[in-house]
Amino acid sequence: MEEFPSSSGSEEGFVPDYDFESSFERLKDSACFPARLTILGLKRTNKHLVMRELLRVKNAQTLDEIKDAVVAAYQDLMALEIFDAVDIVIDGLDGKHPEACSITARFSEKSPIQVHTGTYVQGQEGSVEASATLTNPLGHAERLNLSGEWGSRSTTTYSLALTRARPRGLPYLATARLYQQFSSFERWSSFTELLRGAETSLSTEDGRHLVGAGIGWY
Prior knowledge:
Layout: H1 20-27, E1 33-40, H2 47-54, H3 63-79, E2 83-92, E3 100-109, E4 113-122, E5 125-135, E6 142-151, E7 155-165, E8 172-184, E9 192-204, E10 210-217
Parallel strand pairs: 1-3
Antiparallel strand pairs: 2-3, 4-5, 5-6, 6-7, 7-8, 8-9, 9-10
């Protein structure tokens, strides 16, 4: 995130050694309120999703309070994991209210499709894994992941998972997953096993705490 002083847009007046920190310390307690909010760069993302985070600035009454609200909004927007970058600029407004400011938020959305492949060895079994993820296809910070893992000896697994970041603006990660796992032990016996199941979980954004439930059937 970048915050910089108002300029005319011309590089002629740019001062390379401008002491931003000292200027901010001098002005941070000055009366200031957001009078205009501009959002740019959204293509798939629902505008309500980002407005929910950015509107926390509306109660700010000083430049320092606006800065704190913008930083918190930036952190929560990046926690959605649907943006490559979020740039938020606070600038002055020309008019009869010198304490008014404008806030411009520019978003760079992640690619809607990510594909991953890999090979792994665990013990005496090698495996090939492939997955495809749709990021934010409906514009509500959801991720849909389809993956498959094929073992060289005994195990094949398929799964479909839907993940939603910050549901209803809460600092959690909600996940629902369906899976199918086929295990073959025919190298040693005639036994094979097909397990299907479903799981749901709710975790904190940092992944330190999780609660979940699951069911499986043969």
